[in-house]
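pinging the channel bc i need a second pair of eyes. not urgent but kinda urgent?? the chain im working w is below, pasted from the shared doc
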Amino acid sequence: MIHTIRTVIEAESKTLLWVAAGLGVYGTLQLVEGIGLWLLKRWGEYFAVVATSLGLPIEIYEISEKVTVTRVGALVINIAAVLYILLSKRLFGLRGGHAAYEAERHETSFLEVELAANEPTLPKGLRNPKVPVGIR
């Protein structure tokens, strides 16, 4: 640990500049990802899977230096997160890709419309304001 701290303190300014530039790029990537997800854009989901995947090479390198339960667990969790995002959001053509993703969204909204259409309409005086629509 002391050796690592000494190495960082004694690092050249050029090295620290590269580290700062890398952190700036990573921060920008996180900002763009957050905006894309906030706006519910498809490209935000692609940014999320790329940003999550960026940690994999570092974790693999760490395991190559010394294998510990914590490092292996972190790698397994990160791989599981990437696979979950890829499969659940149908990114890069997996599970039917964008067309299947849109069909699933379209199908869901039709089900909601159909359920709402089947709700009995009661005159305003007979409605119970304490019971939400759709719950009986």
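so The mean pLDDT is 80. and The first helix runs from residue 2 to 9. — does that match what u expected or am i reading it wrong
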